[in-house]
Design a protein that fits this description.
Structural class: mainly alpha
Radius of gyration: 25 Å
Organism: Geobacillus jurassicus
Order of helices and strands: EHHEHEE
Strand order of the largest sheet: 1-2
Keywords: Membrane, Transmembrane, Transmembrane helix
InterPro entries: DUF7577
Domain DUF7577: 103-125
Number of helices: 3
Distance between the termini: 22 Å
Protein name: Zinc-ribbon domain-containing protein
Shape: rod-shaped
């Protein structure tokens, strides 16, 4: 059965965007700290901490996109692959744990994953 899997290119682009967000967060903190250092308003001193929020989001997204770009079990909507070569991670985590049927290497007949012998030709199946 074919399933939709993530492309590695968009995940790498997301990683580059996350790095840019972290750099922007650092820039924000430095600039906001220098601007609000002499502010008469006490609430203005919290303005640089928004940079920390941007940095935290950028780091989280960077880790997520790096794992998506380099891992075998990835999530997205671009590549179509056979479920036997890469199972759907959401189905593995939340779906049924029923394993797909396999084929006999001798006659090509359908056998269930827990069979030791082919019901069609009777030969032993490889583990």
């Amino acid at each position: 059965m074919k399933s939709i899997k993530p492309g590695r290119g968009p995940s790498m682009q997301g990683l580059v965007g996350s790095i840019a967000a972290v750099l922007f967060g650092v820039f924000w903190m430095v600039m906001a700290s220098s601007i609000t250092a002499d502010s008469p308003f006490p609430a203005a001193r919290f303005f640089p901490f928004f940079g920390l929020v941007v940095i935290a989001i950028g780091v989280f997204q960077g880790i997520y996109h790096y794992k998506n770009a380099t891992g075998k079990q990835r999530m997205s909507l671009l590549d179509i692959v056979d479920s036997e070569e890469e199972p759907d991670p959401l189905n593995v985590r939340f779906g049924s744990h029923k394993q797909p049927n396999k084929h006999c290497p001798h006659c090509g007949g359908h056998v269930q994953h827990d069979f030791q012998f082919c019901p069609r030709c009777g030969k032993a199946l490889l583990p």
